[in-house]
Amino acid sequence: MIDITTENFEVEVIHASLTTPVLVDFWAPWCGPCKSLGPVLEKLEVDYGGRFILAKVNSDEQQELAGAFGIRSIPTCVLMVEGKPLDGFMGALPEGQLRDFLDKHLPSDDQLQAEAEVEQAQEHLESGDVDAALARMAQALAADADNDEIRFDLVKLQIGTGHLDEAAATLAPALARIPVALRFEALQQWLNALEFVSNDERGGWPLEKFDALIAANKRDFEARFAKARVLMAANEWVGALDELLEIIMRDKKWDEEAPRKTFIAILELLTPPKAKADAPELSGKTAGGIELAGHAAVEQDEQAALISAYRRKLSMALN
Length: 319
Known about the structure:
Layout lengths: L1 E2 L5 H7 L6 E6 L4 H16 L5 E6 L4 H6 L7 E6 L2 E7 L4 H11 L3 H19 L2 H14 L4 H13 L3 H12 L6 H18 L7 H10 L4 H13 L3 H14 L3 H17 L29 H19 L1
Parallel strand pairs: 1-3, 2-3
Antiparallel strand pairs: 2-4, 4-5
């Protein structure tokens, strides 16, 4: 439990809630219901073992905070998550209802375990121990099987490190949903490209061989599409986009629009994830090993500009 004032509110409530939900209890010494609610909340904070932080605001002494939250009666509790109010209640609820309220919003023990595994995985990645990172991410997904963020990151890491069979198995549940989320469709297209390179004889061709076929017949879409996949497998994303665009401009519907779907998938793969409020700045290289045009580090604004430019090119080709 933490006593909150205007001086420590920013740190103990706003910033703390970026990582752990904070339940702000507005109370006053003269309030009878507050006296019955307070001990129950303190007990629950202990029972929930760190799944939330209890922050107490004396409304008489901290009228500015009470006013900022529009408190009209006490006790009033507000649950802060990621720096913003998520939900709340008024009055001295019984313990059972309080548990229902908390369970509705707080991460489960399994989710917390998964988060801890993800943190460990990131530490292993930073130290260069990819195998350990893969193991930790797999454990995280096992603990929280419905977490699409973990599934996406694990598949991306598996594909980027050449564990294609494992990636296909991890990706399968996401592909079984209708509709398939775009980011998982993007991973499937990347996986398809790498499997093509591994299993098709054209996967070993030098680019010059594709270029000769295309020079002889600019509508040799099989050669263009195969070349695009080879470029994808080599992380030559811009070259792959250019080759796919050539097909789309000549035949939008070729092969059930596979070039368009692959083009969109590459843009999705190259789009940087939205940074969390407390996350450090990301380098140009992702955990999965994707690098824009083969560079080791790419400024976010440059990558965003390139993605925007190719979205415009696709729009023009389709219209």
